[in-house]
């Protein structure tokens, strides 16, 4: 299993100078895994942060994702090269299929990811927003091992089946929306656990992620929130606290487009 640096830093919704500043703050705080995407329209801003931060490029695990409309074979190759230009790098560490929709065709799309890896433009390949069946299919079609599967994952949506299947295939699960877009702050059980640790509910949620084998959260943030999220690495939860958090599952999705694979 490829071990991704823990935690990652998410950039969805960040743009321009604010994105560059947030990524620089994250890198200076200690994050060594940065996640972006063609869809986010911020690869140039992330690239500027990498250029100006006092951290060597080889010390940063950089991931981006190919837009669903760019998943035909030739488009994967062409737009990956464009992403590298925007990011200002020769290669990324991880290249994802962002959503298995629109131009996605496993027999055409996935061999293009193998080709991009063969060219040295990415060290690893990954997928995002797949179902168990689609993940199993991708494992069979790809020649490259799948390093990561990125999905919405938080205490209200724990995705045990997908996490378990990923582990069986030595795939890391990368959790987006790991603090449920901030909603974890309103969960009484997390607040009570936080009070016992002189922490915040956000830190408790992240500590829960950090303690799950094979799960890497990628929280977003700016300013002090970036440092607060990183500090959750030092928070250890008891088995009883983890069981209490496990009981919060209710299947609540925050990102649920009609065309998502699980709605088909």
UniProtKB/TrEMBL annotation:
UniProt keyword annotations, A-Z: NADP, Oxidoreductase
InterPro entries cross-referenced by the UniProt entry: AKR, Aldo/ket_reductase_CS, NAD(P)_OxRdtase_dom_sf, NADP_OxRdtase_dom
GO molecular function, one term: oxidoreductase activity, acting on the CH-OH group of donors, NAD or NADP as acceptor
Family annotation (SUPFAM superfamilies): NAD(P)-linked oxidoreductase
Protein name: 2,5-diketo-D-gluconate reductase B
Taxonomic superkingdom: Archaea
PROSITE patterns xref list: ALDOKETO_REDUCTASE_1 (PS00798), ALDOKETO_REDUCTASE_2 (PS00062)
Every NADP-dependent oxidoreductase domain range: 17-248
Protein family membership: Belongs to the aldo/keto reductase family.
């Amino acid at each position: 299993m490829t071990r991704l640096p823990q935690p990652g830093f998410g950039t969805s919704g960040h743009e321009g100078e604010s994105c560059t500043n947030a990524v620089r703050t994250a890198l200076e705080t200690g994050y060594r895994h940065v996640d972006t995407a063609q869809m986010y329209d911020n690869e140039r801003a992330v690239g500027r942060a990498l250029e100006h931060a006092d951290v060597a490029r080889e010390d940063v695990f950089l991931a981006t994702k190919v837009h669903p409309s760019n998943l035909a074979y030739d488009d994967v190759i062409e737009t990956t090269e464009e992403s590298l230009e925007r990011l200002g790098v020769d290669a990324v560490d991880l290249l994802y299929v962002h959503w298995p929709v629109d131009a996605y065709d496993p027999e055409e799309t996935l061999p293009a990811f193998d080709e991009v890896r063969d060219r040295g433009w990415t060290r690893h390949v990954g997928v995002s927003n797949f179902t168990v069946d689609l993940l199993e299919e991708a494992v069979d079609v790809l020649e490259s091992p799948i390093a990561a599967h990125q999905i919405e994952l938080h205490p209200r949506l724990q995705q045990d089946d997908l996490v378990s299947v990923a582990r069986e295939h030595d795939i890391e699960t990368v959790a987006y929306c790991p603090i449920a877009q901030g909603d974890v702050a309103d969960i009484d059980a997390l607040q009570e656990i936080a009070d016992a640790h002189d922490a915040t509910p956000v830190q408790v949620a992240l500590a829960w992620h950090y303690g799950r084998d094979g799960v890497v959260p990628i929280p977003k943030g700016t300013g002090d929130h970036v440092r607060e999220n990183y500090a959750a690495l030092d928070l250890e939860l008891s088995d009883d606290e983890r069981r209490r958090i496990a009981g919060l599952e209710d299947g609540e999705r925050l990102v649920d487009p009609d065309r998502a694979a699980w709605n088909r």
